[in-house]
Amino acid sequence: MTIRNVLRMGDERLWQRAEPVSQFGAPQLRELLADMRDTMQALNGAGLAAPQIGVGLRVVIFGALQAAQPNPRYPDAAKVPYTVLINPVITPLGDELEEDWEGCLSVPGLRGLVPRYAQIRYRGLDEHGAPIDRTVSGFHARVVQHECDHLDGILYPMRIRDMKKFGFSEVLFPNREMQDE
Ligand code: NI
Fold it and tell me: Of residues 147, 170, 177, 181, which has the active-site annotation?
């Protein structure tokens, strides 16, 4: 079990475009995925992208590790199955955007209101190189867009339209108990 250090905003590695994975079944990929999973679980994240632990590959994970144990930071995450998504491609379905609050393990303690496509199709590969092809909406669509942004060096604050809707979680939501991010 290895919990890796999550890079925080300001680290140049978070601005890099990540490279596609070309080799499947290699022990390095298995180790990377195990470390990402351990790290996401330890920090109660809803998702994690490889660049956040300093690995410049197009690999993201997201979703609930245990359905019976809802994520205290993202209750809606329980509805999203745990997914390993490699070399993802996102296609928006329609122009409709939805705004909702997001946080990020690389931007600890803060939340921002971020517009995302309401419905998307995403494709990619799982850890064995088998294809994944899903059409999703709501929180599921949001988390995929957030994580895949990391692969192109984009953090959610760059997408906030009204910077008055960006602030510290404990100030924005004083009555809601939120875990430290
Ligand atoms: Ni993030």
Answer: 147
Least Cα distance to 24 among 88, 87, 83 occurs for 87
Tell me whether residue 181 is in a domain.
no
Tokens 């939501």 identify what position? 173
Q: Angle 102-21-148 (CA atoms, 0-180°, nearest 5)?
A: 15
Whether the model clears a pTM of 0.85, i.e. scores above it, the answer is yes
Measured between alpha carbons, how far is 80 from 65 in angstroms, rounded to an integer?
A: 9
User: In angstroms, rounded to a whole number, what is the distance separating the alpha carbons of residues 122 and 102?
Assistant: 20
- The pairing of strands 110-117 and 97-102 is antiparallel
Question: How far, in Å, is the centroid of ligand 1 from the Cα of 80?
Answer: 16
Q: Does residue 34 lie within any of the structural domains?
A: yes
Q: How far apart are CA 128 and CA 78, in angstroms?
A: 24
Structural domain span for residue 19: 12-172
Q: Quick check: is 19 catalytic?
A: no
pLDDT digits (tens, 9 = 90+) for 36-79: 999 999 999 999 999 999 999 999 999 988 755 666 666 666 68
Q: Determine the number of helices (DSSP H) and then strands (DSSP E) in the chain.
A: 3, 8
